[in-house]
Amino acid sequence: MRLKRLKLRDFRNYERLDLEFPAGIIVLAGANGAGKSNLLEAIHYLSYLKSFRTNRDREVVRYSCPLALIEARLADDDERPFDARLVLKSGKRHVRLNGNDITRFQDFIGRLHSQFFFPGDLTLLTGDPTLRREVLDLELLRLKPVLLPVYQKFRNALKQRNSVLKLLYPQPGRRHNRPVDLLKALEAYTEQLIGAGVAIMRERRGITKVLNEQFVPLYARLAPPEGESVSLRYLSAVPLEPDDQLAANYRRLLSESQETEASLRFTTVGPHRDDLGFILDGERDLKRYGSQGQQRSAALTFRLALAALSRQRLSDDPLLLLDDALSEMDDERKQRLLAICRQHRQVFITSASQREVDLISPLATVVYTVEDGLLAPAGSGQ
What we know:
The protein is an alpha/beta fold. Helices cover about 40% and strands about 25% of the residues. The chain has helices at about 35-50, 125, 130-145, 150-170, 180-220, 245-255, 260-265, 285-290, 290-315, 330-340, 355-360, and strands spanning about 1-10, 15-20, 25-30, 65-75, 80-90, 90-95, 100, 115, 230-235, 275-280, 285, 320-325, 345-350, 365-370, 375. The strands form three sheets. The chain has a six-stranded antiparallel β-sheet with strand order 2-1-4-5-6-7, with helices on one face.
C-alpha cells in the first residue's frame, strides 16, 4: 500500500494541504503542536473512519469551518490506483471510493490498510480488553471477510440472550413466575451463542498463534540484548483444548454460570469476555508486571507484527504510521527499528527531536519540516 497524494481542507490546523508522497521512509519533523500528528490522524481517518484521539468528529474540523475534507490517491502493492474521499460535516461522515458513494462503512474500512503507533497506544496493553478484542477481530475480518456473518450471528444471539435474562429475572436473583417460554427462548439463544462463539474463539486462537510467530522475533529485535521475552496468548475462561471439546466446555461454563447470570442478568462467559494477553518471560502478565518501556515496546511490536502478518497472508504491505515511536529508545534500538521500517513500502515517522531526525535522515526518502499546518522539504524554508 502506498499513499501517493493527500489533500486536506480545514482539518485540524491544516487550512489547505495538497502534497504528493514518495515511497520509503517519510519523516515529519517539527515542534510539538505543529501538525505532525494531525497529518497522521487524517490518514488514520481514511483507514478506519475514526480518529485515534477523539470520538467526536466535530473536534477535527478547523475552528469556525463548516466541514473538513480528506482526499487521497492511493496505490495497492500491484500499483493499481484508487481514490478515497471523506467529508466530515455536522457530525456525519460522507465517504466516496473511486467516485462512488459508500453507504456501508464495512465496504470501505481496510481499503487503505495502515498500522498505527502513537504514544497513547499503551492503552492497547493497559486498557479495557474490549480494545484488544476489537483489534484482533478487525484483523481477522480483514484476513477472512467471510467471518462477518459469524460475528453478526454471535452479536445477535448475545443481545437476544441478555434480553431474555432480563425478562426471566425481573429483579436480580428473582425468577419470573411463568418462566417456561422464557426458558425455551434462553435455551435456543444459548445454542446459537455456542455455535457462533466457538467459531470465533477458534479463529481468535488461530490468529493469535500466527501473530505470535511474528511478534516474538520482532520484540527480541527491539528489546535490549539478553533482555526479557514477551509473547502473545489468547485468554478465555472457556478451556480451548482439546479442540473437539470446545463446544462442550462452553456449554458447561454457561450452565455453571446460571446463578451469576440470575444475579447480573447478562451473559458472563464467552468470546465477548475473552482477552489477548501479553506474557512476560512466559508466565507473567506484562500489563501488571512490565515496565512502561516494556509495555511501549510491546505495543509497537504488536503493530509491526500485524503489518508483517498482512504482508505474509494477503501480500498487502500496509502503511506504517509511527507517531513519536523512537523518543524513548536508545540509539541502538532506534537503528534496529529503522532497519525493520526499511522493509516496508511506505512509512511515516514523526519526531520533535532534531537529533532524532538527524539519525533517521540518511535512511529517509524525504524529510518534511512541519510548522503551523504547513509542510516543506527540510532546508527549503517555508
